[in-house]
Amino acid sequence: MSSLTELVTSTISENAEEMVALRRELHQIPEPGLHLPQTAARVRREFAELDMEITDANEVSGFVAVLRGGKAAKTPLAERPIVLLRADMDALPVAEESGLRWASQNGAMHGCGHDMHMAGIVGAARALHAVREQLTGDVVFFLQPGEEGWDGAQHLIDEGLLEAAGRLPDHAYGLHVWSAQFPTGTITARPGPLMASSDTMVVRVHGRGGHGSAPHKALDPVPVAAEMVTQSHVLVTREFDIFDPVVVTCGSVVAGSAANVIPDHATAKFTLRAFTPETRLRLMDSLSRLFEGIAAAHGTTCEVEERKLYPVTVNQAEETEYLADITEKAFPGRWTELEQPVGASEDFSKILERIPGAYAFVAAVDPEKDFETAAFNHSPFATYDDSVLTDCSRLLVDLALGRLTS
Ligand SMILES: [Zn+2]
Ligand SMILES: [Zn+2]
Asked: What are 369-375's contacts with CB under 8 Å, separation 24+?
């Protein structure tokens, strides 16, 4: 073992207990959304103590901390490698029912394990800081709020925080813990599409209201909206390859207020999922065409609003191979390649659209539970295995070191 590896190993294990304590402390102050004053301040303090260059986001709770490698001091910025490591900090608006002694009491919950991500990245920061003089490049720690549907990463990107080290990093890595589905300690990902895109379409059909007994004197928007819902499912099966699948769900239809009154308008809201960037865009275009066509066919008009949320999370092939190699070296036998992408979405996708990188899942199943039946992420009963924290730190550290020590 080289002295660098020894120092990393000893720093991570010396900090192990403190990271468990930090995770449990953060677990008790969960904050959902984009504004996480207590959480972000607590995590920021850890990076400030390591004397890093910190750039705060202005509009939301988030920051980027830059660790400069000692061996890179004389290398021009353009030539020295820069690695980004990311953790999300937000919780869910879920009342915790885990029964843990240190469960949250404030009505919100770290049900998705982002408290693990924060403690894991702090452990990684301490270890990388310990070997900073030997690094040939820089590490960017990207701490964001609002992963759970709030577009948090985008806010930091809009404020220029991806370039906090002076330019865009060369590699980006992130991980997510799972409370079930794989035996604890399993590390998994796949090249190419890893997680679905997630977008919303809102269609407002404009007709002309009237008396329910005389539809011929009105222009009823309700059957038009109903046809949009059923035809959207026909479109999915007729226009999209079953091996490049999409999901369309209409979760809300709102029109009128009385049985005998034809309303002026009807509104339908759809959620869309896809697994390739091209299909994601084609799905929106096809649905717009379908909705406008159906509205016109019945003499009504419609407005179609596209709300793009998260792109497909795409792991770059070479970076995924690197992730698998690093994992196999650090944790022999624990790497498993995922056969299929996951239907959930991630705003790490926004970073991967700009920087080549990879995202991994780390199983952190409560040792008292069975991975096949344990409550999954987002459940009020979800619990996680603290002992995986050091693995999270180790994985992030090794991913950075492989790019910064050659
Ligand atoms: Zn989540
Ligand atoms: Zn999450």
From this structure: 369/180, 371/180, 371/181, 371/182, 371/183, 371/184, 372/180, 372/181, 373/180, 374/179, 374/180, 375/179, 375/180
